[in-house]
Amino acid sequence: MNLADMLSYADITQLTRIAKRYGCVCNENSKHELIQSILTVLGRKDVFEQHVMDMTLEELRFLNSILFDKRSSFSLEELVARVQQTKFDTERNEEAPLLQKETHPRDTISKFKHSGWLFNGCSQQTKYLFQVPTDLKRRFKDVLQQSFATRLIVTAEPQAYRDEDGRMGDDIVQLLTFVRNENIQLNAEGVMYKKMQQQLLETFAIHESTVPKGEWRFGYGRRFHDYPNRLSLIYDYAFFQGWLEEWDGRLRCSQSGEERLAQAGTEPSASLYRFWLKLYKNAIPNLLSLVHWIQLCTMRWTTIESLEATLLPYVRPFYYDTPTAIFRQRIIMMMLHLGLIRLGEDVVQGQVVQITKKGQHIIDGVYIAYEDKIQLSVDKPRAR
């Protein structure tokens, strides 16, 4: 529903609070006048933009967690959890009283309600859920996109660029073929030996080096600790599809893996993208919104440096991964591997990025819920 519809279902107490928030002058005993006054004020572009720009960074992070979520309703518990995730620099005190922990999240939710940005559902089934007006979602996106655009540096098309469209889908088939044809022994931890890893990587379209010892690797996949970034995603995808078996000290192609090979053809990029979102959301809860903003901010060739400066405040650190490392290595490079973006080098501005047409189509067409993640078997960081 749009804002006008939700206002019509709101009780007069909430309408009065919203009207006071925007300084509306009207008869507070008239629901009709309250609604008209609120719609008039919020209909003004300058007023709406100013209220969005006056949000704190944590409130903007909370807003972003909702903007690209296609669900129409959210529970209070969901919203509280999302607000809590906006505190990037504050350690949670697990021993603090529950009331103390929830005070600030509830204050943020109350502010959004009093601003007319969140409403309780109007039916018996949804009255304890919260909804965001559909038209306000669009306006929020427009305002933020305009704000982001002022910070971006756009360039001409570089003389050369890197585009890995479809290569990952091809290399999944290559992995299955390699496993079927080779006698692959696994170590005590169920991992391919380095020599075998190197042989496999040499067959791939995109070169990677094996993981050096001493590097902290955690949170981005079942075998992320053991294999380089791209191979880790390819391997985990094939394993979660049931195409690989780690059994009795050997890595084998399962019956379903053999059937997949018999089908031939590359693995669809959209399926890989959906898997990546679910897998990496363990470490990057707001990955979906970040990907959408990268898409919207790189319709033209844009410098990586300006894009990073614009979106970095929305990237939460994860253990030993800094926001910069997460943005560059876990998001941008993986989007390149997935064929969603292409990277170039401008002689003056340095590294530049642009969303691909295929990337636009995939990102617009694939949705996963905020809490939809792949549970990992490892739940704490460890070094090689």
Could you describe the 3D structure shown?
By secondary structure, the chain is an alpha+beta fold. It has 17 helices and ten strands.
- The helix/strand class is alpha+beta
Helix fraction? 40-55%
Report the mean per-residue pLDDT as an integer: 92
Number of strands: 10
Binned strand content = 5-15%
Shape: elongated
Largest sheet: 4 strands, antiparallel
Q: How would you write the strand order of the largest sheet?
A: 4-9-10-8
Give, in order, the helices and strands.
HHHHHEHHEEHEHEHHEEHHHEHHEEH
Report Rg: 24 Å
The DSSP helix count reads: 17
Distance between the termini: 51 Å
Could you name the ranges where pLDDT drops below 50 across 5 or more consecutive residues?
90-102
What is the gist of this entry?
The protein has 384 residues and is α+β, with helices and mostly antiparallel strands. The chain is built from 17 helices and ten strands.
Descriptive terms for the model:
single chain; 384 residues; alpha+beta; four-stranded antiparallel sheet; 10 strands
List the helices and strands and how they pair.
Layout: H1 3-9, H2 12-21, H3 31-42, H4 45-53, H5 57-67, E1 74-75, H6 76-84, H7 98-114, E2 119-120, E3 129-131, H8 134-149, E4 161-162, H9 167-181, E5 184-185, H10 194-202, H11 229-240, E6 244-247, E7 250-253, H12 255-263, H13 269-280, H14 287-297, E8 302-303, H15 304-311, H16 323-337, E9 341-346, E10 350-355, H17 357-365
Antiparallel strand pairs: 1-3, 2-3, 4-9, 5-7, 6-7, 8-10, 9-10
